[in-house]
Amino acid sequence: MENFVIGTAGHVDHGKTSLIKALTGINTDTLLEEQRRGISINLGFAYLPLAENLTVGIVDVPGHERFIKNMLAGVCGINLILLTVAADDGIMPQTREHMEIIDFLHIKNIIAVITKTDLVTRERIEEVKAQIRKEFNIEKIVEFSINKPETTKVVLAAIKENYFAYESQEDYLFRLPVDRVFVVKGFGVVVTGSSLSGQVKIGDELEILPDKVRVKVKGIECFNQKRSIAYKHMRVALNLGGVKKEELARGKILASVGAFSRPTKIIDVKITTSKYLKEPLKHLEHLKFYYLAKEIKCQVKLFDHKEVTKSVTVYGQILLDEAIYAHINDLGVLRRLSPVQTIAGVEIINVFGDYVKKNDYLYVEMLKLFEKKNYEVLIPLLIDKHQFITIKELRERLNLSNIDLLLSIVHKNGYVFSNQTCLTFNRFNEIKDRIITKVNQYHQSHPYEQGINKLQLLQELELGEIHTKVFTEILEKIPEIMIINERVKARDYHVKYNQEELRIVNNLKNYLDSFNYKPPKINDVLANIKGKSVKGILYSLIKNKELIQLDEEFCITKDKYEEMIKLFDRYFDKHIILTLNDARDLLDTSRKYLVLFLEYLDKVGYTRRVEEGRVKK
Fold first, then answer.
1. 5-161 in CATH: which number?
2. Which residues in the chain come in under a pLDDT of 50?
3. Half-sphere exposure of 259 toward its Cβ, with a 13 Å CA cutoff?
4. CATH class of 497-617
5. How would DSSP label each residue in 500-524?
6. What angle, 0 to 180 degrees and rounded to 10, lies between the N-to-C axes of helices 534-543 and 499-513?
7. What is the CATH number of domain 373-496?
8. N or C: which end of the chain has fewer CB within 10 A?
9. Degrees to nearest 5, angle at CA 84 with 32 and 143
10. Architecture of the domain spanning 264-364
């Protein structure tokens, strides 16, 4: 497999491009300005056949200090670095800066190539080797001269010795930071980059981040060869459909559709300061964050520090000026705006950081759990901290591809609801206690009502944006309460009337039933029933479904309503259509009341109006 990418690094004019040309025959200085000035301004690309069925990619990154940002874009997804050090100059400022960036990005596979060896003595070459070993602790050192073809074979042999194959199928998420965009006549838009994870096939749909624009992969090329599939750690060119060149640029990312739910502006990180740092890194200092192929202005929050000096590792946050789609365990670099210099490397520990105080020790302890991947403790902690978090978001926060492991830990510690949101048992019990308290308080203040309206209860609990279906699931898990007619009541609660109130209840029901299916208006009922709180009792009976309110003016008793339904049920057992005349015969009432009853039955879904009359639903 060609899932292996080589990158060059080193000071300007130390022979990186010449080395690549000697190895591959390809001149990566393709811009006229690069060829005129003799330095690489942009990223250059080549490919190197290592064996009959093995070709690897090479990224030639610029060495000039002004083009460090291009160098940072180039090291995304690189597996082996060829660090060039000219024999005449030795280690130079940009050599050190490149080497530190390589260290910040955790690239350990490095070969130091001493170039221009034909210009100096053997003594000088050995002196530069000693300098490299002492300052960079690199033992893999080879010599190269553009004027000595045999040295190319030495470099090539060293590359073969340090090649290793990647397991490509372990990642569920494909990501490719875009470093070049161009149009090929007859094909359309093409992007290139070094794939960080996952795999991509012709016909796959991908998302452009941060725009969330969807594109289709029409073609794949690696090293001028067409392919049907590409894996992680490969130099890839993708021919895309459904997008214009102007919609893409370096710094954007192609990713699996739906892999990233939302962007972030606060990321929790571990910061390691440069060993060459002159001025301390200060809390809330304004810097630039170089991440994948993108650069973003930011502030850096240091936990429990006002400032840090060189060669120190601390926990902190990056507060970004613009939101990005980031990934846990990704690496980046911080650079100072003035004077421009690399001052720290960062590792992303938690993508969705919370805005917390700099001395929040509990938050730092949580970051340590992220770093150790202590999922057994971390997952319940996250669910408690972000109640009703989804399984998808948990997976994204943790970069956890093992969904079975995630679900087993969640189920061990809490509930998963129908919309895949989670609550720990502890958080559920807290909500349960609050619900029981609210329901009992409502019973005390509204003794004539069966219970509190479910949506009102949800609103009073202030649980955030929780789906009503999930709230119902929570209520159904609480044995002390029950739901009747969309009202929540304590299971052992019953509306309690005293003797006088019971007399009024019976009088109201008897009075309404005496009119059979020609009920009086509610106002007439209230005028004819004597006693204290008649209106309150009547409306409590309506809320408790002891009286059925047909519209604003009329109601009937529950018994009379159920009697009417039985009459219609028997009718529909033998007939399909219920006409107005049929209904009049059944209920022995006038057209005015028939319309009232039938429209109510339409509204509650018992009947449906058709051209000939009503049918039962």
1. 3.40.50.300
2. 1, 29-43, 67, 74, 168-169
3. 27
4. mainly alpha
5. HHHHHHHHHHHHHHTTTTSPPBHHH
6. 70
7. 1.10.10
8. C
9. 120
10. Beta Barrel (2.40)
